[in-house]
Amino acid sequence: MEFAAARTGHLLRSACLLTSGDVHLAEDLVQETLRRMYVAWGRRLGRRIDNPAAYAQTVLVRAFLTHRGRRSSDEVVLSELPDGQALPACDPDTRLALLHALAQLPPKDRAVVVLRYWEDRSVEETAHAMNTSAAAVRTRSTRALARLRALLGPSLAEFVSA
Amino acid sequence: MPFEDELGEALRRVGDSFDTDRQEKLIMTATERGRHSVRRRRTWAVAASVIALGVLGTGAYASGILPDLDREASVADETPVVGGERVLATFEKLLPDGTISRRKDFPRKPGEYVHVSFVYDDGRSGAGLVDFRMGVADPRRGDTGRDTSRSGRTGKAGAAEVWHDRNQEVTPDGHFIEVTVWNAPDPKSPRGSRPEPVLWGDVTRLMRAGEWRKELDRLPKPDPLLGEKPMDPAWVRPPVTVTGPGMAATLTSLLPKGTITAPDGRDTSHPLGPAGSVLYDDGEGGARVEVALYRVDPDGPSTQQFTRCYPRACKRQELPGGSAVDAYEARPGKGLVERKATYVSAGGDMVEVTAWNAPGEKRRPVRDEPPLTLEQLKSVAMSPAWKKALGALPAAPEEETGGPTRPTAPYRYMDELGIEGKRIEDEDGLGPGLIELRRDESRRNTTSEPQLAVRQEPVEGGGKGVVRWVVTGARPGGVYVTVTAYNAPAPDADATRTTPAVGLPLLKATVLSGLWNDETYLRSLEARR
């Protein structure tokens, strides 16, 4: 439980980025992740999960991708965020722009971006989490970055330096 | 700040802005659901797992690659700049009649000189995005040259989909030029505005335009060893801590009583590595006993292959601390018996001791059996007496980055390639690759320092995906030798493996071998051809 308490906030933030701001879906995903973690721990009792936080993150990404695979036809690009109350630390326009840009990416590309640049995971770790090859991750990552750069361009630099 | 870093920072800020105060409810619900799942799966209780969940720890995951990002940022700062404005102006000159709009000059990523994009409209079939980058080619990032990749949403490009064609070329100096063309002005458009990317038939001309070469010629040449760990100076010239006669003397001291003649040895600075050899006679006839020392990557695939104990007679003994010793006996024919013990320590020290029942490997047997048993050879190989000589040798690079470190290879290459020659190598079993060697009698290194140049480049007009590593070098006062290793069985064949079949450390060691200036050795090579 301690683990859950310590990591849920982070998982939820990851999930919000993965779902490009759909907080309700994010909560569902985190709940599903915690459920799976619970079950996994029961099964792995006695065997060590080396890195529970990373493991949970992997479970979350896989849950997200499974969810997307299941109902990809339902995917809508959110023009406005359901819970768009921005914190003062975050320029609301760029926040929206970034989430909107993330929403433009295919789900797998978004997962790569979140894992690599939010989670700071290596290409290999990302590939493992997504059940794919390192080359595929590189391709997706290049493509996603090019796309994000085209979408956000210099506004991101201003946002970050602000 | 490179775009990735900005993105990471922006993600952190946006991520942190999400309200997560409903956590507790989430956890409770999840735990409840988890319990249900577990109950469904099993009939026995697993309440203990919840405790384990807490015990197994939190926060073990440290996302600490920030220093790395800092390093990348500083690399970007050091990279020279090519003005985006000038590049866009050059494009205006290069492009056929049409309109150019939406010019963008992007912040540079590590290793990039410039990154611009613009939308080009030829006025006939629609507009499309053109993306252009130049920078330092880094094979680790996939800059291997001649990269033509396409993307479509489904992989099958059609008129309705947005797709692009990326073309990259790496110059012999190690810069890359990359042009990517799209079939829409905006990659995120739902539909392509034209069936093919704009300027599709013209990409190669644009990529190879002399203007870019002129631009790149002004810049410093990238480090040809980019992507490689810095070379241990001992690779060029290890210190002489044990002399050749010293090696033979150490070997003698480890042998049982007997007559020793014809001691011979290579010192620790020798390009082939230190070795000792004596003719040992226990009373039944003088037989050759040899020892050779190496430093290898103990986990490297080629080391494992080398010490895997091929013959059935081979016995492997694992020692405490991760070391191992192999011993085998071979009977290659004509009555010759060869016994060999190979010791590899956990740290990569390798000692090979060989004894024959003849005065040499290719000589006629003078006795039935070699004068030493396998057990005796093993104890010679494991002797701490070799520590001093091994300590003089440079640590082998990791095979994953440095390529095979199989120790006898430089000698073998020289022997088999001769002064000028080629052979197809597939030591690691990953695919055949051509090795070519040339000794340039007309060029000598007149400086007092060893000279070494390494190029990693795609093969101009070669097969699909073919790259080569060209290593040219000479010892002080020595002639220049060039070894070229391909990742294909021929330059015009398609690549069979990702990197050439021989690693750079070996290529360097081969090129810098003192034997290229040893007239006796060269004559023996000539005679064999």
Automatic annotation (TrEMBL), chain A:
Q: Which domain of life is it from?
A: Bacteria
UniProt cross-references to Pfam families, sorted A to Z: Sigma70_r2, Sigma70_r4_2
Q: Which residues form the RNA polymerase sigma-70 region domain?
A: 9-72
Does this entry carry the keyword Signal? no
Protein keywords = DNA-binding, Sigma factor, Transcription, Transcription regulation
Read off the InterPro entries from this record: RNA_pol_sigma-70-like, RNA_pol_sigma-70_dom, RNA_pol_sigma-E_actinobac, RNA_pol_sigma70_r2, RNA_pol_sigma70_r4_t2, RNA_pol_sigma_r2, RNA_pol_sigma_r3/r4-like, WH-like_DNA-bd_sf
- Please report the stretch or stretches of sequence annotated as the RNA polymerase sigma factor 70 region 4 type domain: 96-148
Alphabetically, which GO biological process terms does the record hold?
DNA-templated transcription initiation
State the family it belongs to. Belongs to the sigma-70 factor family. ECF subfamily.
What protein does this entry describe? RNA polymerase sigma24 factor
From TrEMBL, chain B:
Q: Please give the start and end residues of each transmembrane region.
A: 43-62
Task: Please verify whether the record's keywords include Membrane.
Answer: yes
Name the UniProt key words of this record, in alphabetical order.
Answer: Membrane, Transmembrane, Transmembrane helix
Give the superkingdom in one word: Bacteria
Ranges for region Disordered: 139-160, 391-411
Composition bias (Basic and acidic residues) maps to: 139-150
This chain belongs to which protein, by name? Answer: Uncharacterized protein
